[in-house]
Amino acid sequence: MTGCFILSMEWENRVVKMDKPEEDLERIEVHSAWMFDCNICGRENFIRGVRRESMEGDDGRVDLYVLYPREVACKFCEKKYETELSG
């Protein structure tokens, strides 16, 4: 198994290992997303995150932020929720 992706500065010491992709597989871009489980119907919902990068600082570091929505609605039963980040 090979491959490693660092998601953010706080993830530096955590490694995600993956099988080496097959040579003939087409590449596709993945995006940050937020997920929640609906309290009414129990189904998973995914919302694409909005990525923002800050300016490069004097130390050469560029910070990445993923913004989350204030409100969400279940795509299946349309129940609306106010959001909060999990610990």
Structure, described:
The structure is a single chain. This protein has strands at residues 33-37, 44-48, 50-53, 64-67, 71-73, 80-82. The chain has a domain at 31-87. Residues 1-12 have low confidence and may be disordered. The chain is an all-beta fold and 87 residues long. Strands 1-2 form a two-stranded antiparallel sheet. The protein has a two-stranded antiparallel sheet with strand order 3-4. It has a two-stranded antiparallel sheet with strand order 5-6. Helix content is 0%, strand content 28%. The protein contains no helices and 6 strands.
Query: For the residues shown, what is the average pLDDT?
Result: 80
Globally, the shape reads flat
Largest sheet: 2 strands, antiparallel
How many β-strand runs? 6
Give the percentage of residues in beta strands: 25-35%
- Sheet/helix structural class: mainly beta
Task: Please give the count of helices.
Answer: 0
Q: What's the N-to-C terminus distance?
A: 30 Å
Q: Approximately how much helix is present in the residues?
A: under 10%
Widest β-sheet, arrangement of strands: 1-2
Order of helices and strands: EEEEEE
